[in-house]
Amino acid sequence: MTRFHIISNAHIDPVWLWDWREGLNEGIATCRAVLGLMDEFPELKFTRGEASVYEHIERHAPDVFARIKAAIADGRWEVAGGNYVQPDTNLPSTEVLSRQFHRGLGYFKRALGARPVVAWAADSFGHSAGWPEIYAAAGMKYFAFWRPSAPELALEKPAFWWEGAGGARVLSWRIPVGWYGSARGEFPARLDACRDEAAKWGLENIAVFMGLGNHGGGPSRAQIESVLRWRERNGGVSVVFSTLREFFAALSGEAGKLPVFRGELNFTLRGCYASAASVKSAYRRAENALLLAERTVSAVDALGKLPARARPLTDLREAWDAVLFNTFHDVLPGTAIESALAHQRAWLGLAQHHSQRAGNTALNCLAAHVDTRVPPAKGDAPALSPVLLWNSHPEAFDGPVEFEAPLDYRPVEKYRDRPDAAPLTVRDGGGRELPFQSVAVENNFALETPWRKRFVVRVKIPPCGWHVLTAGLDSSGGREKAREKAREKARAQAREKTDLAADDGGICNSHWEIRASANTQAIVFARKKAGARDVALRVLSVDDPWGSWGGHDGEAGANHVNETKAVWTIESCEVLERGPERAALWVRLANGASWLELTAHLYRDDKAAVVRARAFWAEKSARLKLEFSTGGAAEFEVPGGSIRREPCGDVPGGRWVRLGAGRGALVFASDALYCFDATAETFGATVARSAPYASMQGAKPGVDSWRPHMDLGEHLFQFALADGAVGADALARRLEAPPVALLTSAHDGALARTGGVLRAGGGVRVLAFARAETHDGWLLRVQGGGAKAADATVEFFGSRIPLGRIARDQIRSFVLQQDGGRWKCVPVSSAEEPLHGKQSP
What we know:
Helix content is 23%, strand content 32%.
């Protein structure tokens, strides 16, 4: 007999057409109402996820929370999902999405004694191919979802196994009729439709979802009664009030006959990949700052240099909650109202500040124990500044670093009107002079007299480690002229050795030549590698009449928004820097009231072209797009791994895209962009799209013209292009979390001027390095980074530690512990939750 499992639920958007205050309060109202119905209908069961909602109920309605706990104990209330919120499932990083389960599962265990095993994504807008690995690592056995629907993605059956690149599988269910909720009076017709389709699906167990929907609202009394009446009339179907866990337990008996699906469950609502760029960039900054700070705090803690007084300032739990909450699928995708998104940007700003404060606190604690001495100054001359460079990544850094340092407490009057004549020096941790380039300082105050100087220098920094430089005014007394002569000779030699060159039309090194001309429409990135094609960059205004979601009802015309309104014109260009360490070309493009300023950088003997961008966008119902003259299939970083796609319209992506293959392959990386598209000849990256806020259909000419549009105004971002042989992860790290420069005081210290803590071995990416909560030691989460399974290792304080064999994209968690004076990695559940306020063992 076919069995219908009635899944009573209440999808609560904490932010959408309302702000977070109203959304979370609705969680209280809905749960209170459902508990009343459960008293009235003894058969009724209820499914509710999202730890953030439960936490709000626990704080503000303890009576409701107590009744929920009792209903859980009675087996009538299911805690599902396991995450903090229902996040967007295409845009956040792998670690942030893994941390959703750390946070959610940890809370559910502590507060409710519950351990969900069903992942529940009622309304998320498509799902990346890497999710089976994330789910499996979190101990989630099952997955239920709605989007994309059947017209957007064909599946053989509504029930199937979803398999990841590393071999992880989750038993999955896509809602085949209706959606996760139900309108008033609709439910009998939905049951009829499921009955009529059941034979085609060939399944004995079918989940049917009931509840009023988005602003809370679980099942109504009338809906429950309609189910009871329908059951009486349809004796050939078993109808039970059930939970997701009970449904999947029953479905598991049919698992042997279910198909296997490999790949991504995409695409739907494609406008979300670009909407609300101001929210996306704020989120990306907070995410990067938080991950950098966590690694920094953990490394300094592991060194034993984080005293108790510093711990309150290095506690990152509030910042984590802010980042996790703002992955919500109407916040990060940009589909909420304007005032609500303003609240969320402010919250993300707080997360970024807390992260920066924590990282700065930890680095100051480290600097207090590092030898930061500088050479003694002569007479009343200013001393050099010690600069502690910090590389937060568990991979060695070897590349350009940019930082500012003061020359003195006052402007150096000796060099008034000749600031470039001031003798400067940069020395490494061993006291050796380094080649450097002085570039424009960030301020524009009294530049005729040198006061601060900005340096570009190439340096090596150990993995998850530091390197102390000294920089500033070289006041070496009577030897000043001799030293300046020697420096000039060294600069001349550097100019002879450098591969950088510049003329009025562009800049070049041994890998790239970048050229632009006023009154033309393309910037040319010429590649000097044999067999590699030049790449022309055009800036486009593209017509985009769709609403916040793009095509809200699956309109095919919204799947690839590429009708060009205008190709922007280069107004002016100027070479700003000519080497020997860096060359820079500034280009300004414009169209109407909109403009874009790009500063392209090439570094000495460097395979990447790095571009800093400042855009001012002033067009409604349109999108700003970068278009590169290289197309075809591409590999995209996505949550949980990467996926290769043929051109298929607007698609979501992460930090990098690998274009083409072989000798002509090219890597694109950015620190802010998520929406990409390709044709056979071009690759596009959307910077901003100005749809009306929370708009279903988009703006209509002459209708409600007063309504505000998203993303008008200024946008800052970076992107880079590099040869396909360059590591895509390394290129993205360079943009998102470059080495931190901390100007500190000069003093003796027990720690050497260079050192490191954690190094990732081959075939593995480190996702997280954080203080563990339930074990003494440090949580280490890694992901297989090779094309196939490999034996993975890490080094911790120089000790090589085997992690075992890890498949491609497989996620595993360990705790680093000492055992008899030696370090070892102990495998743990991925539900291990970091706690940043805990004391060192």
